[in-house]
């Protein structure tokens, strides 16, 4: 039986335009504590990163009201500014993946997540994948699996403002060696 685990990564600092996301989050990934006592990340884990911190690193700022905001909450966004969703989230996920692989070995999967609304009024908001790298999304149900992983990460980080990164372990049959963008 497969056991899927998701652990929020605390202490991620605010990112600024031009920051290397993989470099900023790496030291925090080294300190992740798993329920079985294991500390750190393995090369076959999946790292789910809030699209908000990727957008900040990309400099996707705009004056509030000029264009629609890409995020439903204003946490971490200064007054008077808005933030658009990340540009080319699949490519950004691939870049982060290569940065993490260089630091940790292996080829961890990377998902950049954002908020999607339920299909029916009153069903709330769930995290979905905006982009991914290292995960098979082209097969049957591929997008659904990636979105489910993003949603699980959203639950794991719920209410933790300093945890825009979650590591997921134990998802079978989704990892690939190649980046395979195309979400």
From TrEMBL:
Entry-linked InterPro entries: F420-0_gamma-glut_ligase-dom
| Swiss-Prot/TrEMBL keywords | Ligase
This protein is called: Coenzyme F420-0:L-glutamate ligase/coenzyme F420-1:gamma-L-glutamate ligase
Q: Name one GO molecular function term.
A: coenzyme F420-1:gamma-L-glutamate ligase activity
Pfam families per the record? F420_ligase (PF01996)
Coiled-coil residues:
none
Q: Which EC numbers does the record give?
A: 6.3.2.31, 6.3.2.34
Top EC group: ligase
* Annotated ranges, domain Coenzyme F420:L-glutamate ligase-like: 12-67
